[in-house]
Every structure is written in structure tokens, then in C-alpha cells.
């Protein structure tokens, strides 16, 4: 069972990923670091709106920002994505195991009939 802090992080991360613009920003950052201007380029929304989406992703712990001279590139946090993947995998594996047991039972029933 997840602790309360972990639950809150997961809640924030999944809520942040509920928006298609934020998912697109994550997809873009998976290809490499980018500034707000670079991230805003493909969208028909203002840079301020993109900046707010970035703030949500940052508050959710999915991205970080650093300073590189005048640039403030955004970086995807692979550890945060790994935490989400791990949470999902826990349930995916449990469901797959149940399906395997059901398949085995159905196969045994076919053999008994045949």
C-alpha cells in the first residue's frame, strides 16, 4: 500500500497528465530538454498558457527546470515517470496473472470435455 505522500504525488502526476497539452509537453520533453519558447512553438495557445502548464507539470514533479545562462530549459524527470510506471505495472501484472489462471482453467475444461 502506498503511503500518503506517495499517494499525493501520484494524484498530482496523474491529474497533470489528464490534460492533452501537458501530455504533449511530456512527449516533447522525452526527446530532449527545451525552453518554454521551444515548447510553446507547436501550440495555438499563448506562451503564458504553456508556462502555466509547465508549472503544473513541475508541481507534479514530472519536470524540472535549470538555468543555462539566459536559458531556462525544462527537463523530464525519468524517476517520476518510473514511479508512475511502477504503480501501473503493479496492477497490470496482477490482472495478467488472473487472466493466465483463467486461461489455464478454460484450457483444462476443454481437455476434460474432449
From TrEMBL:
Gene3D superfamilies (UniProt xref): Winged helix-like DNA-binding domain superfamily/Winged helix DNA-binding domain
GO terms of molecular function: DNA-binding transcription factor activity
Origin superkingdom: Bacteria
InterPro entries (alphabetical): ArsR-like_HTH, HTH_ArsR_DNA-bd_dom, WH-like_DNA-bd_sf, WH_DNA-bd_sf
SUPFAM superfamilies, per database record: Winged helix' DNA-binding domain
Annotated CDD domains: HTH_ARSR
SMART domains the UniProt entry points to: HTH_ARSR (SM00418)
UniProt domain HTH arsR-type: residue ranges: 2-96
PANTHER family: SLL0088 PROTEIN, TRANSCRIPTIONAL REGULATORY PROTEIN
NCBIfam families the UniProt entry points to: HTH_metalloreg
Name under which the protein is recorded: ArsR family transcriptional regulator
Source taxonomy: Bacteria, Bacillati, Actinomycetota, Actinomycetes, Streptosporangiales
